[in-house]
Each structure stands twice: as C-alpha cells, then as structure tokens.
DNA sequence: TCTCCGATTAGAC
DNA sequence: CTAACGGTCTAATCGGAGA
C-alpha cells in the first residue's frame, strides 16, 4: 500500500510588505501597500491596509486619496530586495525535504511525505523561516497540491490554526463540511470567469465541485477542470516539478513613466529591453529564432488616438547575442514608428527558443566564440555590479522613459549604505 | 479529414 | 504642478489554412 502524500504549500504572508517591514520595524503596525511597476496598482497589502478596504490589484490613482487620508504608507516595489529574501526563504525550506518546488516568488511546495511528527515539524519549519529570515509564512498540508493550497488558505484565514493547517487530519465528514463553506473560486485554477460558469451549473462551493458529475464537468470545462476535481478528491494529478523547465519565451516590457513621443527615446528603451531579454536567454543557455517587437499607446485613454503595432522577425540563425538582436529591434522600431502618437509601453519578446547545445555545431557561422565571450563578460559585470553597468547601447535617454518609482525603499540587502543605523 | 498554426482566453501571482 | 491603471508566463482551445 502507498503512503498518503503529505504535500506542504508554504506561502509568505503579505510578502512584499513583510520584506519592507524587515528593515523598518517601526512600521510594524502601520498600514502599508506595495505598488506594482510604474507605481500602477496595489500588489501587496498589510493586514491593516486590507482592513481599510484597499483591494488587491486596485489602481493606485483610485485609492491614493483614501490612502493619504487614512495614513496608509505606499511603497514602490523593490524587486531586488524581494528576490533576495525569497531565495533565503526557499533555502531554509529546501532543508526540510529532498523535493521542493519553488512555485513563485513567495510560495513553495515541499514534499513532506513520510515525515514523522508532521505537525511539529511544520510548526518548526515556520518558526525557523521566521527566525532565519524574518519572513512570516503559513503552511498548508494536504494529499495533493490543490488541497495543500486550499489548506494554506485556511491556515491564513483562521488565526486559531497558528499558521499551519493539515487537511489530512480531517475525517471525511469534516472535509465535506469544511469544503462546503469555501467558495469555489478559492480553488487553484478556478478564477473569476470559471466560477461564474460553474455557478450557472449550481456549483458554488469547493464541495460542490468535488462531488460534481464528472462527465459533465469534463464536457463543459475540459481536462484541466477534471484534474482539479480529482485533486480535490485527494488523487494526485499534478506532480511536483523537481527542475524548472526552460522558458519558451522571454518577455521584457515596461510602461513608461510619461508618454514617449520621440523615436530615439523609444529606441533607447527597446535597446534595454532587448539586452535584458537576451541576458535571460543566455542565463538558461538558449537561443531564440524569432524576435517580436511591440509598442502601445495608452489603452485607457480612449480620447487619444490608439496605435499598437508589432512585428515578428524570423532570424536567419538563432542567437542570444544582444548586439545581433538589438540591431533587428532597432530596425523594426523605425519601421513600426509613427509620429503623432503618445506611446505608453513597449517591449521585446523572444520566441522559438531552443537550447544552445543543439545548434552549436554550425561551423559555417564565423566567430561565434568572440561574441560569446563578449556576452559572458557583459553578463558577469552586470551580475556583479548591477543591471545596467554595461549597456548595449548608451544613447542615454532613459530619464525620458524610466518608470515611475516615487516611493522606493533603499536596497537594504545589496547596499551597505542603505542599512539603517541601529 | 487531419494537422498545424496563430490568436484568443483563462489563470496564477 | 498635474496627471490617469503591472509584468511574465503557461496551457488549452478554437477556427482557418493547407496537406
């Protein structure tokens, strides 16, 4: 007989806000929100901010006034800080199991199957993350990833759980009762649209979904929903991924801090996007064969003329060379550009990505090595001294397009000067 | 008719 | 001072084009 799986989903509480508070303990009870890139939307809220009615994903300009009136502190996002702290959390978790899957910047699945005294170990894991990183987490345990996520939701919501909830500890009757009290859109993979369609079939709670007529579900919603149902029934359909698969596309795009009306400025931005996309490509040892360039006007400004062109360039030879790809990007930018529009956003996407190894045998391509060496040097410097130390093109108009970040905290973990005095 | 492809949709965070 | 809404990524599905 096989042992019941014990899958843990460890999720950091209000992650970005918790990161900011680590270095500002004086803000422990201050309502805080962290804003997305360009100070656009609220992407993380402290419990106090939630209690004051700030919604997840809410555009900042909508709640700015309310925030000021209620003394809510808003911070621009500081991704270098969050990535650093995320790595620390993940390494602590990795010590608890041979198999972990980092699912997102603030979430990790841990296969605890076979762990003795699971409850005690889970509390200890939570305690250790807190002690070693200062980040509070909740632990959800269940026989499948989907149920572990649900268990985590319960751990977060019910203070009595003290941060750990194990679905496997419930009797059948308790499971049915509990799932009957949770709305179906809390299920991993069921979002706004699907929950509406499910409601039309009378499926409103997680328990409804778990016990729904499978053939109907399959016919109406497809294979994914059927898997979700099986997972809710405790049958593992979604395994932990031990190694992260290579990216199939690399996107680098930004909204601009103010509208761009000059080709040279847009080209400057695109050269940075191209360089960043290529660096990610090289980091996973891949080549791309298709380059996609786009530029967008502000879709929220229906009073202004809209123009959202894009172009795909198939490369004669796959490459990860920033210089080669940037040449194409710059050329395409000229072709797409039209005067008279206010551009709000642009980006570079690399497609048709393959591992370098399968193509390295092309002896006809001259001088691959010198370009590879140059790229290695660029990546090395940028990793060591910070992104943008070496740039592909330094036309230097970035002040004209850089995103708005009026409220960013210092780089506490990467800059000694930023650490506040004790 | 089958297959491949691009576009669209839905979701996660 | 005013303005004016994120960024990546994946999988499934659908409809049309081409074999």
What are the salient characteristics of this protein?
alpha+beta; 14 helices; 4-stranded antiparallel sheet; DNA-binding; 422 residues; 20% strand; 5-stranded mixed sheet
Characterize the largest beta sheet: strand count, sense, and whether it forms a barrel.
5 strands, mixed
**Secondary structural class:** alpha+beta
Strand order of the largest sheet: 5-6-1-7-8
Mean of residue pLDDT values: 88
Kindly, what is the distance between the CA atoms of the first and last residues, rounded to a whole number of angstroms? 57 Å
Low-confidence stretches: none
Helix content: 25-40%
Q: Which outline best applies?
A: globular
Tally of strands: 12
Number of helices: 14
Our Rg estimate from Cα atoms comes to 24 Å
Percent of residues in beta strands?
Answer: 15-25%
Order of helices and strands: EHEEHHEHEEHEHEHHHHHEHEEHEH
Please provide a written account of the structure.
With 422 residues, this protein is an alpha+beta fold. Helix content is 38%, strand content 20%. The strands form three sheets. Strands 5-6-1-7-8 form a five-stranded mixed sheet. Strands 9-12-10-11 form a four-stranded antiparallel sheet, covered by helices on one side. A hairpin with a 2-residue loop joins strand 5 and strand 6. The longest helix is centred in the middle third of the chain and has 21 residues. It binds a DNA duplex (13 and 19 nucleotides) through helix 3, helix 8 and strand 9.
Sequence-ordered SSE layout with sheet pairings:
Elements: E1 7-12, H1 15-22, E2 32-35, E3 42-45, H2 47-51, H3 60-69, E4 73-76, H4 79-94, E5 100-104, E6 107-111, H5 118-133, E7 137-142, H6 145-157, E8 164-166, H7 172-179, H8 192-200, H9 206-210, H10 214-221, H11 223-232, E9 250-260, H12 263-283, E10 286-297, E11 310-319, H13 322-336, E12 343-355, H14 368-385
Parallel strand pairs: 2-4, 7-8
Antiparallel strand pairs: 1-6, 1-7, 2-3, 5-6, 9-12, 10-11, 10-12
Helix pairs in contact: 4-5, 10-11, 12-13
The structure holds a DNA duplex (13 and 19 nucleotides).
